[in-house]
Amino acid sequence: MEEIIKVEKIADYNNLKGVETQHPLISVFDNYKTKALPNHSRMHFGFYAVFLKAGKCGELKYGRNNYDYDDGTMVFVAPGQVIEIKNEDDYQPTGLALLFHPDLIKGTSLAKLMSRYSFFSYEFHEALHLSLKEQQIIKDLFHKLEYELSQSIDKHSKGIIVNNIELLLNYCVRFYDRQFITRENINTDILSKFENLLNNYFQSETPQVIGLPSVGYFADHLHLSPNYFGDLIKKETGKTAQEHIQLKLINLAKERIFDTDKSVSQIAFELGFKYPQHFNRMFKKNTGFTPIEYRSLN
């Protein structure tokens, strides 16, 4: 098995790139002035990384998917993620890079908000593509961070650095929202496929085999990461993917309750519930009646 290079500290990555470590918890640099990473390698990150690519920058592989990065593409890596790097032999790194360790933001408001930035869990083929104006905004923020790191550290340094990182990530949220809108045709196709998959799931014996469907199940069949899939469905419909699954489940349960030849336990099992009492609780929570009461009322 191919060895995974562990880069747990900012200095570890800087050493691979030939970059001076100005601060142990954050690094900002222009890739054009650095060395290429070890080719055909796999790397495990122990920190957050944000990259703004310039020009065609080789290929990253994540799972089954490849993505050839074009000019103005942003990618995000979170602690614990592994990426595979494939480049041409004469590859020259380009673009800007921001690395920051979770310890940098401990005790700050940003630490509480990190779960909001779901794009850190998007797969690499779901990268953010920027317009020229958007690129300039991101570059300006990179340069502000670079400037701050070049200054002597004082009592204001951490606050200014963390606030600029938060501002950069908030802009990325806005730009991803724009990307969901501009890809409306693609999104509509995904929504249609999701509905078909959901129908097929319950029309087959899959629930009896693997149980209740998860968001991850449908995301995997659509070759999307669960977070990207969930964000896309929410933007398109106003409901989360989990809410769509729950609504489908309730509607099917209401229909099947009328089949008096089957017990409530049988219906629960057919829908994927391991225990009938879980089905009963879910049904009452959503209808106000137990399955038996609902069958009697109708």
Written description of the protein model:
This is Transcriptional regulator. GO terms for molecular function: DNA-binding transcription factor activity; sequence-specific DNA binding. InterPro entries: Homeodomain-like_sf (IPR009057), HTH_AraC (IPR018060), Tscrpt_reg_AraC-type_HTH (IPR020449). Residues 192-297 form the HTH araC/xylS-type domain. Keywords: DNA-binding, Transcription, Transcription regulation. With 298 residues, the protein is of the alpha+beta class. It folds into two domains: 4-182, Jelly Rolls (Sandwich); 186-297, Homeodomain-like (Arc Repressor Mutant, subunit A). It is 50% helix and 15% strand. It is built from 13 helices and ten strands. It has helices spanning 10-17, 102-105, 109-113, 132-150, 157-182, 184-203, 206-210, 215-221, 226-237, 241-257, 264-270, 276-287, 291-297, and strands at residues 4-7, 26-30, 41-45, 48-53, 59-62, 65-68, 73-77, 82-86, 96-100, 128-129. It has a five-stranded mixed beta sheet with strand order 1-3-8-5-6. A five-stranded antiparallel beta sheet has the order 2-9-4-7-10. A hairpin with a 2-residue loop joins strand 5 (59-62) and strand 6. Helix 4 (132-150) packs antiparallel against helix 5 and helix 8 packs across helix 9. The longest helix is centred in the middle third of the chain and has 26 residues, at 157-182.
SSE blueprint:
Elements: E1 4-7, H1 10-17, E2 26-30, E3 41-45, E4 48-53, E5 59-62, E6 65-68, E7 73-77, E8 82-86, E9 96-100, H2 102-105, H3 109-113, E10 128-129, H4 132-150, H5 157-182, H6 184-203, H7 206-210, H8 215-221, H9 226-237, H10 241-257, H11 264-270, H12 276-287, H13 291-297
